[in-house]
Amino acid sequence: MTRVFVGVGSNLDKLKSVRYGLKLLQVEFTQLCVSPLYESESVGFAGDNFYNLVVAFNTDLSVYALRQRLKEIETKLGRKDNALKFSPRKLDLDLLLYADLIDNNINVPRAEILSNAFVLKPLMQLAPLLVHPLLGKNYQKLWEEYPQEKQKLWVLDLNLMVNQRSK
Fold it and tell me: E strands within 32-108?
């Protein structure tokens, strides 16, 4: 079993989309650890605010099979194969970490971990002592070093209707 972390985001029909996406992930991977839910401004384009969180789970799937399964879940919620990277979306599932795998061809660890508060903070909350495979620093330290005034981020106290538990 491999421990993975996946970023979940939505800015279209946000709460419904995030809940349904989590439901599909839970059916597929059962034991999800879910971070708090955050709202943040869109990055890379002018658009509605996003809801973001991070989930962790174990899988027997290869990294390639997992990425394909995440794409299938996105498609089930209406994402088009030709969707622009920086555009509104019902559901965005980004593989952030696949154990300690380093693979630039598939962007693991995902570069956005270090550049976006809405990825780094919820990841840090799920796994504060986990060490970034490239930098050798844990996520708590990376969050402490992050320029937190760079991006606005609001925690949302919403029931996502999944078994929420920390690592």
Answer: 33-34, 37-40, 50-59, 92-98
**Is residue 32 domain-resident?**
yes
CATH number of residue 125's parent domain: 3.30.70.560
Domain-embedded: residue 163: no
Q: At what angle do helices 63-76 and 14-29 cross, to 10 degrees?
A: 140
- pTM of the predicted structure, to 2 decimals: 0.89
Cα(23)–Cα(52) distance, integer angstroms: 15
Mean pLDDT (whole number) for 28-43: 90
Fill in the DSSP letter of residue 16: H
Euclidean distance between CA atoms 82 and 113, whole angstroms? 24
pLDDT at 112: 94
pLDDT of residue 83: 55
Name the residue among 4, 33, 1, 2 with its Cα closest to residue 109.
4
**What percentage of the chain exceeds 90 in pLDDT?**
72
